[in-house]
Write a structure and sequence with these properties.
With about 900 residues, the chain is of the alpha/beta class. Helices cover about 65% and strands about 5% of the residues. It has a 5-stranded parallel sheet, sandwiched between helices. Helix 29 (about 590-605) runs parallel beside helix 31 (about 630-645). The longest helix has 30 residues, at about 705-735. The mean pLDDT is about 90.
Length: about 900
């Protein structure tokens, strides 16, 4: 994407409420104008332009004027071009009256947009007020917050019933919407969070950040997702100029404080007072550059916007940078360095100032950074340690941090060094555990991970350490297709919980605590899994400072899974969003990949296929970027399935082709066929689709992955195999906890019976779970059944219900929806399959060969289909079934 093409006009999205408010005011005869106030760069002008366009749609004539300091020096300078020619303004009183009389509101009424109204001269403000009173002008204007406003402009805004509207910065969802629209594609959640935090929702800054990142290639689209390099650039040259121009206005006495803030981020107010006078700090606060805030009864000074510090820091010369950092280190040391994070600050700033720091201080700082999940910072501090000061503790911490960043090769180098330094069982256990996790999660090797644990088991003498290794193996089994074995190995996980705020071996406990609810949910114990995951998350948050493995958000990933399998889909979706917020900008590939996958899976169960596709896309893109293959096959299969339901067969084929080339990793065993099946269904091959799903369900059952088996059998029912799967789904409803399994069995029984009342009861039960697409399918089939029985009123109500459910499914189309909506006599499964193949342009002979039928039988079925649908051609058939027509 060319940056310059994006510069001039960014999309106006996320402002629906603002537009609705304007429309309400515009049609209200009480009001004569609409003034938008807000800080610079918030998007006032862009919104006002849209409002002007809306006013013209209501029949007003658009006029524009821009107030400025230069124009304000000349009476009527801003609006002179709007005045009728020949009007004598030498006597303002008579001249203004003649302007009003010359502009007849019966011929034309103006919508006048004035940018920067606070700069308007008094004469223009007075004349506009008269024109508004005469109903000739309807005012649209912008005012910058905090700027002085003349009395004439105040009267214009305040006494003529002009609506005052304060425009705030974009929030995170609005920022994501703007970015998605501007870049014509989704962004990774970490990228959205980074750009939002950097811009603070300021539209101007956001645009310039994106343009700068595009120019430098720091923002790239890979695998359908826009991703920002973690070491992101400052932004565009224009952004630097904008901020430089603001910083240039400060008094020279304030410069040292601003430079220290830029380099250190935040300063205690007491330290700020040693750099600048209280009056200087007050002036900076009044100008809006800094603010003074209170944190745990201590006062701190920081920039009001992070970009001020970014721009200023880039311009600080190297020698001055060293001096400022050393000065701040000396201040902290002089006060005793008593604060919790002082070690981190001293070590970091000492490295920046001198290139070195005390080894013990570096280690303490690295631990603080790792506990804060700031892995990049931890690695930088640990790699600054001299070789003679690299211990088993530092090497293990370095390997752990590199693993969390998705760098298994460097992690293994560090951990192999740590293993050579281990002398006690406790040390050997810690290194073996971290190595196994890195090799398994980031290195994609189950066999190597298990080999490390086996070797450790042979060298450990203590029984406690052997219990820990049992937990490690259980965690690996849960994600490798052996959930039942995992539950056996993790059976006594509670024995590691010493009390409400302490656990034994916190890192090992954290991984076991994450994987046990996952194993329970997969084996049908979803309700127990929810309780397990909630407890694990609560305790993990309390012991997070001890655990050098896994972000607490990992426990929320398991909670999303458990809630979804329990049939609590809205809660699962909400928990996923909460997890992303908690993760923020933390770069933790493993957690981000699996959170994206389970978000996608939740949306698939809910039938929100576009949202599911977005999350499958992110999961696949992050997997490729970080070389982590564990979720890739499942993500690509989901991507193929969602594209198939959206009618994009070519995209589904591409995703499925890549999926077939990706390794199977065991998790949710059997579900890797989902994309294949729905691609077959989109192509009209329902028999093959059911066969693939049936084979996947057998695989899932063999691994005791009951959640996956139930999902695959439910999809078989949706594709014409309801009678075949009803028995097993009914059995699974007794084996599995939660309402989802029961609703799936109810759905299959209703489809098999074809009873409309039963189908509508099923739709209502599914609606309570949030499974909208299954609701729509059940209601659609019910409508067709009632049509067949001449129950037109009930059929109409069912259609209305189906449309309501389907409105939340983001354009999904399935065979049940397409074969039942247009006919009083619904198609049989065989007719449905032949009709879909014929609509896709498949010749009768090819259909016969594919289904093992004679050409005559195929044509007879097509004849019956045409009669039911009251059509005569394949083109009409494609139109009825809402599938693309290919004329063979």
């Amino acid at each position: 994407m060319e940056p310059e093409k994006m510069r001039h006009r960014w999309p106006l999205v996320g402002r629906g409420g603002d537009l609705r408010e304007f429309n309400r005011i515009l049609v209200n005869p009480r009001f004569k104008g609409f003034v938008i106030s807000g800080p610079a760069g918030v998007g006032k002008t862009r919104l006002a332009e849209e409002l002007l366009a809306l006013a013209t749609q209501k029949g007003l004539t658009a006029k524009r004027a821009t107030a400025s300091s230069a124009a304000g020096m000349v009476p009527l300078g801003a609006i002179a071009h709007l005045l009728p020619p020949g009007v004598d303004l030498s006597d303002p009183a008579r001249g203004f009256a003649s302007v009003v009389s010359a502009l007849d509101p019966r011929r034309s009424r103006w919508a006048v947009f004035i940018d920067d109204l606070h700069l308007l001269d008094s004469a223009s403000a007075f004349l506009l007020r008269q024109l508004m009173a005469a109903k000739i002008v309807w005012l649209i204007a912008t005012v910058r917050s905090g700027e002085p406003v003349s009395e004439a402009v105040q009267n214009l805004m305040g006494k003529e019933r002009v609506h005052q509207y304060s425009l705030g910065e974009l929030d995170l969802p609005q920022t994501e919407q703007v970015l998605h629209t501007a870049l014509n594609g989704p962004l990774s959640r970490r990228t959205v969070a980074s750009l939002f935090d950097a811009s603070r929702g300021n539209m101007l800054y956001l645009r310039e950040l994106v343009l700068g990142a595009l120019t430098s290639r720091a923002l790239r689209q890979e695998g359908g997702i826009w991703e920002l390099d973690e070491q992101q650039p400052l932004g565009s040259a224009r952004l630097t100029e904008l901020i430089d121009s603001r910083l240039a206005t400060v008094h020279p006495q304030a410069r040292p404080l601003l430079e220290s803030l830029a380099l250190c981020g935040t300063l205690p107010l007491a330290d700020a007072h040693t750099i600048a006078s209280p009056e200087t700090i007050a002036d900076l606060e009044r100008s809006g550059l800094v603010n003074v805030s209170v944190d745990q009864r201590r006062r701190f000074v920081r920039f009001t916007h992070p970009l001020y510090g970014e721009v200023l820091r880039a311009g600080v010369p190297a020698l001055l940078r060293r001096a400022r950092l050393k000065e701040q280190v000396d201040r902290i040391v002089a006060t005793g360095a008593r604060r919790h994070d002082d070690a981190l600050h001293i070590a970091t700033w000492s490295l920046g100032a001198t290139g070195t720091a005390d080894p013990a201080l570096l280690m303490r700082a690295a631990l603080l950074a790792r506990h804060a999940h700031d892995y990049h910072h931890a690695v930088a501090l640990l790699e600054a340690l001299p070789n003679e000061h690299r211990t088993i503790e530092s090497q293990t911490l370095l390997g752990d941090s590199l693993f969390e960043l998705g760098n298994p090769e460097r992690a293994e180098t560090a951990l192999a060094k740590a293993a050579s330094l281990a002398t006690t069982d406790q040390e050997r256990l810690g290194v073996a555990f971290t190595r196994a996790m890195s090799l398994f999660w980031a290195g994609n090797s189950t066999s190597k991970a298990l080999k490390v644990l086996e070797d450790a088991s042979n060298s450990l003498a203590g029984p406690d350490e052997r219990v820990m290794l049992r937990v490690c193996r259980g965690a690996l089994c849960a994600i490798s297709g052996e959930p039942s074995e995992a539950l056996v190995l993790l059976e006594h996980l509670e024995d590691l919980e010493i009390g409400p705020t302490e656990v034994s071996h916190p890192g090992i406990w954290a991984v076991g605590a994450m994987m046990r609810p996952a194993a329970r949910a997969l084996t049908g114990m979803a309700v127990s899994a929810v309780e397990d995951a909630e407890h694990a998350y609560e305790l993990h948050q309390r012991v997070d400072a001890q655990a050098l493995i896994l972000h607490p958000v990992g426990q929320l990933v398991s909670l999303v899974l458990a809630l979804a399998e329990a049939g609590r889909l809205p809660e699962a979706r909400e928990t996923g969003q909460r997890a992303w917020e908690a993760l923020g900008q933390v770069n933790n590939p493993v957690t981000s990949i699996w959170l994206a996958y389970h978000q996608a899976h939740t949306e698939w169960l809910a039938g929100r296929v576009r949202t599911a596709r977005r999350w499958y896309t992110e999961c696949a893109a992050q997997s490729r970027t970080h070389g982590n293959w564990r979720a890739l096959r499942l993500a690509l299969s989901g991507l193929a399935a969602t594209n198939a339901l959206l009618g994009d067969v070519s995209a589904a084929e591409a995703a499925e082709d890549e999926a077939q080339k990706s390794p199977l990793m065991g998790y949710r065993t059997g579900e890797e066929v989902l994309g294949t099946a729905w691609l077959y269904a989109a192509q009209g091959h329902l028999t093959q689709a059911r066969s693939v799903l049936n084979e996947g369900a057998r695989t899932a059952r063999a691994g005791n992955c009951l959640a996956s088996e139930a999902l695959l059998l439910t999809d078989m029912a949706r594709l014409g195999g309801a009678k075949e799967v009803t028995g097993r789904l009914t059995e699974l409803a007794t084996l599995c906890e939660g309402d989802l399994a029961k609703a799936r069995a109810m759905f299959a029984r209703a489809l098999a019976a074809g009873e409309p009342e039963q189908l509508m009861d099923t739709a209502e039960a599914l609606e309570l779970l949030g499974a909208d697409l299954l609701c729509a399918e059940a209601a659609t089939v019910a409508a067709a059944a009632w049509q067949r029985r001449d129950k037109s009123r009930k059929a109409a109500m069912a259609v209305q219900s189906a449309q309501s459910y389907l409105s939340r499914c983001e354009g999904a189309r399935t065979p049940l929806l397409t074969s039942s909506t247009s006919s009083a006599a619904p198609l049989t499964p065989r007719e449905q399959e032949i009709a879909l193949l014929a609509a896709a342009g498949t010749a009768s002979k090819d259909i016969a060969d594919a289904l093992g039928l004679s050409v005559r039988t195929v044509n007879n079925h097509l004849h019956h289909v045409y009669g039911k649908l009251s059509i005569t051609t394949r083109k009409e058939l494609a139109d009825q079934l809402k599938v693309p027509f290919t004329d063979s």
